[in-house]
From TrEMBL:
Organism: Azospirillum brasilense
Protein name: CoA transferase
Keyword presence, Transferase: yes
InterPro entries according to UniProt: CoA-transferase_III_domain, CoA-Trfase_fam_III, CoA-Trfase_III_dom3_sf, CoA-Trfase_III_dom_1_sf
PANTHER family: SUCCINATE--HYDROXYMETHYLGLUTARATE COA-TRANSFERASE (PTHR48207)
A Pfam family reported for this protein in Swiss-Prot or TrEMBL: CoA_transf_3
A single GO molecular function term of this UniProt record: CoA-transferase activity
Keywords: Plasmid, Transferase
C-alpha cells in the first residue's frame, strides 16, 4: 500500500507577506515551511527604491529566506493595486508587514482597513521600535537594536568596548516572536472567530533575548559587564586554548567539578578549599583560570574532548561553518535540507530546528522569481490572463 505524504500543519492558512530584508521574511519562512500558503507581495521593478537589500535574487540569503513561497507582483502605491490587495485579504488568514509604522496607513492597508474587509484577518507588524512612542517612525536595523537592547554592552572581552554579535540576532528573534504571536492569534481565533493585531519590534525582541542579564538588572539592580568567553557567573565555563586550537567547557556544579578535575588529572584541585564550591571558584576565577589554561595547552583538542566525555563533563569543539555541517550529529539531525533550484541546481538550505512527529516542516519549492505567480494568484480571485496583461502594461503588477 502506498504511504501518503503527512499532512502539512498549516496548509489551511494563507499568508500575505509584505516583508523584506530579514525579520519579516524569517517569520513568514516559519509559516511556509510548515505548509502555509505564503504569497510574497513584491513591487514591480523600479517601484521599490530599496529593492535588493537582501542581495541577489538567486543569492544564498534570498534563497534561504523565501523558499516555499509564491510571488505576486503588485504596486500598492496605486489605487488599483491597493484594491487588488484588499480583495486578496478577503480570503487570507494573516498579513505580515515590517514597514515603518506610518507606511501601512499611508498605503491604506492598516489594521482597521484590513479588518473592515475581513474581521478574521490577523495582521502581524514588525517594526524597529514599536507601533507607538517617540521612536515609532525611525527606521530599524539589527545592529542598532543590538546596541539599544543591551547585547553589545555584554559582548566581547572586558575593556575591549562594545561588540556586535556575528549574526542578525534582533532581526531573527523578532521574526520568530512574530511567528509565535501569529500562532497564538490563530489559536484564539478558533474560539472567538475574530482576528487581531500582533505587534513586535527589533528593540523589544532584543531586550527579551537578554533574558537573565536583563532580569539581573531589573531584580538586583546590577549592570552586567562583558565577560568575554567566560560565563557571567559560573566557572570554569568558557573557552580554553589547547595545543592545536580551542574548545568549550561547561562545568555546572560541584559534582561536575570533581569529574572535571579527574579528566584533567588534577584531582588536587577538587579538594582545594579555594575551589571547593561554585561560589568559591567564581570568586577565585582570576587565579583558577590561568592554572587551567596551562593544563589545557598540553594536549590537542580531540584528546581533551575524549577525556572530558569519558568523565561526563560537558565540552565541545568550536567549529567553522564547514566543520559544523561535517559533524556526524549535525548530519544525523538533517538540518541541512536538500533543495533543487532551476537556476542554481542542487543545493542545501537551513531547515527548521523544530521537529513534529506527524506534520514536520518541509522544503518543497525554491524561492520564487519576482512575480512568478502573479497570474496564478490573481486568477484565483477572478482575473483573466488578459486582465493581468492589462495591469502589467499599466505598471500595477
Amino acid at each position: 500500500m502506498t504511504r501518503s505524504e503527512p499532512a502539512k500543519a498549516l496548509e489551511h492558512i494563507r499568508v500575505l507577506d509584505l516583508t523584506r530584508v530579514r525579520a519579516g521574511p524569517t517569520c513568514c519562512r516559519v509559516l511556509a515551511d510548515f505548509g502555509a500558503d505564503v504569497i510574497k507581495v513584491e513591487a514591480p521593478p523600479g517601484v521599490d527604491r530599496n529593492e535588493g537589500m537582501s542581495g541577489p535574487r538567486h543569492g544564498y540569503d534570498m534563497l534561504n529566506l523565501h523558499r516555499n513561497k509564491r510571488s505576486l507582483s503588485l504596486n500598492l502605491r496605486t489605487p488599483q493595486g491597493r484594491d487588488l490587495f484588499l480583495e486578496l485579504v478577503r480570503t487570507a488568514d494573516v498579513v505580515v508587514e515590517n514597514y515603518r509604522p506610518d507606511v501601512k496607513d499611508r498605503l491604506g492597508i492598516g489594521y482597521d482597513a484590513l479588518r473592515a474587509v475581513n474581521p478574521r484577518i490577523i495582521l502581524a507588524s514588525i517594526s524597529g521600535y514599536g507601533q507607538t512612542g517617540p521612536y515609532r517612525e525611525r527606521a530599524g536595523f539589527d545592529q542598532i537594536a543590538q546596541g539599544m537592547g543591551g547585547l553589545m554592552s555584554v559582548t566581547g572581552l572586558p575593556g575591549q568596548g562594545p561588540v556586535r554579535a556575528g549574526i542578525a540576532v534582533a532581526d531573527s528573534a523578532s521574526g520568530l516572536y512574530a511567528a509565535i504571536g501569529i500562532l497564538v492569534a490563530l489559536s484564539e481565533r478558533d474560539r472567538s472567530g475574530e482576528g487581531q493585531w500582533v505587534q513586535t519590534s527589533l528593540l523589544e525582541s532584543q531586550i527579551a533575548l537578554m533574558d537573565f542579564q536583563a532580569a539581573r538588572y531589573l531584580v538586583e539592580g546590577e549592570v552586567p559587564q562583558p565577560a568575554g568567553n567566560d560565563h557571567p557567573y559560573s566557572t570554569p565555563m568558557g573557552v580554553m586554548a589547547t595545543a592545536d586550537g580551542h574548545l568549550n567547557i561547561g562545568v555546572g556544579g560541584d559534582g561536575q567539578w570533581r569529574s572535571f578535575c579527574r579528566a584533567i588529572e588534577r584531582e588536587d584541585l577538587a579538594d582545594a578549599p579555594e575551589y571547593a564550591t561554585q561560589e568559591q571558584r567564581f570568586r577565585n576565577r582570576p587565579t583558577l583560570k590561568p592554572l587551567l589554561e596551562e593544563v589545557f595547552r598540553t594536549r590537542k583538542t580531540a584528546d581533551w574532548l575524549a577525556r572530558l566525555e569519558e568523565e561526563g563533563v560537558p565540552a565541545g569543539p568550536i567549529y567553522r561553518m564547514d566543520e559544523v555541517f561535517a559533524d556526524p550529529q549535525v548530519g544525523h539531525l538533517g538540518i541541512a535540507v536538500p533543495c533543487e533550484h532551476p537556476a542554481r541546481g542542487a543545493m542545501r538550505l537551513v531547515g527548521q530546528p523544530v521537529g513534529l512527529s506527524r506534520t514536520p516542516a518541509r522544503i518543497e519549492r525554491p524561492a520564487p522569481d519576482a512575480g512568478e505567480h502573479t497570474a496564478e494568484v490573481l486568477g484565483a480571485i477572478g482575473l483573466s490572463p488578459a486582465d493581468v496583461a492589462a495591469l502589467k502594461a499599466q505598471g500595477i503588477v
